[in-house]
Amino acid sequence: MKSKNLVSLSVATVFAVLSITGLLIYFGQGSHLVEHTHAWFGVLFVAAAIFHIVNNWASIKGYSTDKKTGGIRRELIVASVVALLFLGGIAADLPGFKALPNGGKALFGKKRGPGGPEGRPGPPNGQRGEGPEGPDGERGMGAEQAVLTKTAIDSIARQMVAQHLAANAQTIRFDTTAALGHNVILAQGTATPAKPGSAKFRFTQVITLADHQWKVAAKQTAPL
């Protein structure tokens, strides 16, 4: 088995998979599986490309320099100029380069539904805001966070805290539930242990939205 053949076929196979997953992500059809496949095959592509360059270094050198004069070939200059033009256009955020990245999602991306913006599920039980001011009349969350009303924040906080403290606490009382950011909720309160004779304790939990699910990112308890 020839190493050059193996490396070339590996690069071609990995590139084919990356092309498919890349197009799916570009057109807004990505999912957890698609994004993870794209990331891992990106790692494989880098590894295969390194081996490909090492095994074909003599050929690459021959394409880049003229054996007779020792100078640089025009092909290498053209390839370098094209790469620099694209890098410069992307870095400067020129109009053509600015519109291209989001063009696919604008045409075929997932539409914004009642659950909230794309890639961001709404609160449980179908609760959602109706503007900068939620149904309970509370402000302070901003238009971008209108999907999370005060009622929704309370519901998410109670659900997540109950899941983590239900086994050790008989009663749970909330003192504070608030949104710290777009996808971050703070919950504070006190809990009474189910075990007789145990002292009450205060809890603080930071809840974040990750992979379209609310999860407890950090928590702290202290006896009263």
TrEMBL record:
UniProt-annotated stretches for the region Disordered: 108-141
Organism: Fibrella aquatilis
Positions of the Flavinylation-associated cytochrome domain: 6-57
Domain of life: Bacteria
Pfam families given in the database record: DUF4405
Chain segments annotated as transmembrane: 7-27, 39-55, 76-97
Keywords: Membrane, Transmembrane, Transmembrane helix
Gene3D superfamilies: Transmembrane di-heme cytochromes, Chain C
Protein name: DUF4405 domain-containing protein
InterPro entries: DUF4405
Keyword Transmembrane helix included in the entry's annotation: yes
